[in-house]
Design goal:
By secondary structure, the chain is of the alpha+beta class. The chain has seven helices and 16 strands.
Length: 276
């Protein structure tokens, strides 16, 4: 274990009155949140890495933002600048999955190497090629993001990951976590606090792991194209990776906005929290 990643969660958007029942099974129908959207900045002195990238609210990104009711937004680039990170200095972007809110700004980082599961990227090309009646599958996909991933491939900056990989970068490990999508991955970071897990959208809430009433029964997502079977197996893998310690879990859409973590900066109501 290298124990050297310095980790921050960077919030860049919030939806308005998101129904939790639209995200996790069994949530009360009247439970709503202005749900945060975030990505992770991890630095070890040699590499500057993003886990997901957020999205830009221009062109097709603006259309997607309006489609899904995300009125509150600040540029991910502005939030990174507050951490003294310029786009050209980002060395790697590890993408949990290909939904627009997670990879919609990859075109802003001209030198970054992209790491995404092969199954994830290729499954979306297959899904988009299906007849229009299958459109439900791809409604959260922005084709322009896939085009930018292809551009990175042409420039030899795209790494198609095949399943679980230890030390994708030193002290950064990826695990296949399909369910929400066909090839999502979650990320394990070795830090001074021990191993932390960035769940992508494998998990929307602690309830996914601890169950309602803390009964330990895993709760599947309602926002998913994969099976509940796969989702629960992925949730179990995450639970084992954190050894049941929810303080080691980074939820990118955390409705509680990472309340146990110290806020190091706040810009126009959007926060940057230090995780390790």
């Amino acid at each position: 274990m290298t124990n050297n990643w310095d980790v921050h969660v960077i919030e860049f958007a919030r939806s308005k009155q998101q129904r939790m029942a639209g995200l996790i099974h069994g949530a009360p129908p009247d439970e709503v949140h202005d749900l945060p959207f975030s990505f992770v900045l991890a630095r070890d002195g040699a590499s500057t890495v993003l886990v997901d990238s957020g999205f830009m609210r221009e062109g097709s990104g603006e259309a997607m933002s309006r489609k899904f009711g995300i009125p509150y937004w600040i540029s991910p680039l502005r939030m990174l600048a507050a951490m003294d990170v310029a786009p050209e200095n980002v060395t790697d972007i590890v993408l949990s999955h290909a939904h627009f809110d997670h990879m919609g700004s990859i075109g802003e980082f001209p030198k970054a190497h992209l790491h995404i599961q092969k199954r994830e990227l290729l499954s979306w090309h297959e899904a988009i090629a299906l007849p229009k009646q299958f459109g439900f599958l791809t409604e959260i996909i922005n084709p322009d993001d896939l085009r930018r991933a292809f551009d990175a491939a042409v420039e030899h900056r795209l790494n198609l990951v095949d399943g679980d990989v230890d030390d994708l970068l030193p002290g950064l490990h990826v695990r296949l976590g399909n369910g929400h999508t066909m090839g999502q991955q979650f990320i394990i970071l070795d830090t001074a606090r021990g191993s932390l897990v960035v769940s992508g959208d494998c998990v929307y809430s602690r309830r996914n792991l601890c169950g309602y009433n803390h009964d330990g029964v895993y709760v599947p997502l309602t926002n998913a194209i994969g099976s509940a079977w796969d989702q629960l197996k992925t949730i179990d893998r995450i639970n084992k990776a954190i050894k049941g310690d929810l303080d080691r879990l980074i939820i990118l859409h955390d409705a509680e906005r990472w309340k146990a973590m110290p806020v190091v900066k706040e810009i126009e109501g959007f926060c940057i929290v230090k995780v390790s």
